[in-house]
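Hi all, long-time lurker, first post. I run a small reading group and we've been trying to get comfortable going from sequence to structure in the token notation. Rather than ask abstract questions, I figured I'd post a concrete chain and ask someone more experienced to write out its structure so we can walk through it together at our next meeting. Sequence below, copied exactly:
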Amino acid sequence: MTTEHPSHLAEALRRRRWLISAWPWRALAYLVTTVPIAGVLGVGLLVIGAPLLAAVNGLRQHGRPPSIALMLFLATGSLTLLALAPLVSFPVAVVERWRVGLVDGRPLASSPWPGLVARYRSAATWREVAYLFWLGGFTPVAYWVFLVLVLLDLGMISSPWLAGDANQPVVIWQPIDSVGEAIPYAIVGVLLIPVLWYAIGLLAAVQAAVARWLLAHPVDAAALREVTRSRTRLVGAYEAERRRIERDLHDGAQPRLTSLTLQLGLARLDVPEDSPASRPLAVAHDQARGLMVMLRQLVHGIRPQSLTDLGLAGAVRELADAATIPVVVHADLHDELPEIVETTAYFVVSEALGNVARHARATRADVRLTRSGGDLVIEVTDDGHGGADPARGTGLTGLADRVAAVDGRLLLSSPPGGPTVVRVELPCRR
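-- Answer (accepted) --
Happy to help. Here is the structure in token form:
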């Protein structure tokens, strides 16, 4: 689902209202403000680039090697350029990160001056240097080509007014003798104006994308791996603790509570009904039975017994039988699944069917369990009214959090009018 107001230029270019929006003017402002920066950088690069091109051209055409003086100049100039580039790129990067905001509303964080030595040792610095050379080398060439196209279009549009000139104007290498010959060119030039507006946006979008790619702080891969490992350890620790609590409740508290309930029941049989202790004993017996049911439900909520007895497919069919609407289960599972994946999948289906019953106004639902590569894929489809939105409730958000905890992902398709499809992919690594 697209947003009402695009946040960046590349997204705005895909909108039908591009030509009548403010985005072309923002793109034009971005390009115009680039000219002085790219011009200064381009002149600086030409100091080294022009003699280098001349030396290469002389060697290629005449076989003359460059003079020693020229080679010394090129070597000294190149080393000086590389030495100064990390210092020059810092203020340029600060300005460029700010200017990207003209065409891209997504924040591009900047970093403070890290110190002279750290500046030369940082990988982010040399990414900024690469952007510096791109801005001063490629950008002026692209701008000149675009300027030639604009001037050519202006020449086509103005050709009817120039046709009577004694100098006989030339449009696209074709001499124009009369106004009649110039009118088709003028019409084509007018029709090309929207194309040039789109070209402005495309040029600005490419430049902004390169700026974002090179000037954004790279993700710390080592830190990201550590976060992933930490989350895996937490999930493993949670699963071990869950099994311990389940075992303690099932093997410790539940048998004692069952024994207490039996003892109270036997005591009720020995106490006459007209005894003053009969009623309190009956109340205590009923409360013990209720507590035993509650404890059994609590153990069931930690890991449903049906998962242990029937496996995932059987437990899901049991959920389907208990649903308030007809639910068809399609299960194609042949391999054994990790316990944490089975438990997560069970609660995903349980929560999804609960959402269908509470919100969808559906008449039927389908649950599909399949293996795709190394993943368990769960799809819950209903024929309800659609329009499910995670922002309007915590059900889907909690479901997504549960899936993310085991490194899975949740996909939702719920157009107005339905159908709603919840697809969950859970990796089955052991």
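A couple of things your group might point at:
Strands lie at 170-171, 174-175, 327-332, 365-372, 375-382, 409-413, 420-427.
The chain has three domains: 9-215, 233-302, 306-427.
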